[in-house]
Design a protein that fits this description.
This protein is α/β, with parallel strands linked by helices and 203 residues long. Helix content is 28%, strand content 34%. The model is unreliable at 1-17 (pLDDT under 50).
Length: 203
């Protein structure tokens, strides 16, 4: 192999490797998994999704570190709005199960994000761990109080090159998909959608 080809090969590998340390950012592009969430019951109404970000630290969406330097951590930041990202992910989940579009008779699904996190552990390549947790409340159309409240969590693991925007997007998107799947599979949530409200919590 010529010296020129060797240099080009090395440069190509370096370009694919990504930064091994330092802060990173990635665009807020939702990347759905192949997992289709469970279908809601046929009696379920259409829903309008609203999202609030209740995280105590909103400056980043995670941390990254080298395996041999676990105490030296750098922030992972999202180029975009977390609330818009979460809302888009859930609206996509409703479309994937062919849920009716929102209308004047739609109920409200309020999501309160308490965790939206990625951890990247860099070694030869990188291991990614994502987790999303939300408090959820459902208010039927015309009602002033929730018919049902709960909490959902989704997590995902991924593997790839260090500092990869695609791997960041996949990891948090898959976490969102699994949180949506947990909600859609909930018997109590489906009961509430079909008019059977949960009893009020006892003090």
């Amino acid at each position: 192999m010529s010296r020129r080809l060797i240099v080009l090969s090395v440069l190509s590998l370096a370009a694919c490797a990504g930064p091994r340390e330092g802060a990173t950012t990635f665009p807020a592009n939702y990347s759905p998994s192949d997992e289709v969430p469970p279908a809601l019951r046929e009696c379920a109404p259409s829903l309008v999704v609203s999202v609030a970000d209740a995280r105590t630290d909103t400056s980043s969406v995670g941390q990254r570190f080298q395996e041999e330097k676990p105490d030296q951590k750098y922030p992972i930041q999202l180029q975009g709005d977390v609330t818009a990202y979460v809302r888009g992910a859930f609206e996509s989940a409703f479309k994937r199960v062919r849920q009716a579009k929102s209308s004047a008779s739609s109920g409200n699904l309020a999501l309160r994000v308490t965790q939206f996190n990625i951890e990247e552990q860099v070694s030869r390549n990188a291991v990614y761990r994502g987790r999303a947790t939300m408090d959820v409340s459902y208010v039927p159309a015309g009602a002033s109080a929730p018919c049902w409240t709960g909490q959902i969590t989704g997590s995902a693991n991924n593997y790839g090159r260090a500092g990869s925007p695609e791997n960041y997007q996949e990891t948090i998107s898959w976490s969102m998909d699994r949180a949506a799947a947990e909600l859609f599979a909930s018997k109590e949530f489906n009961d509430a959608l079909c008019g059977k409200c949960a009893p009020p919590a006892k003090n």
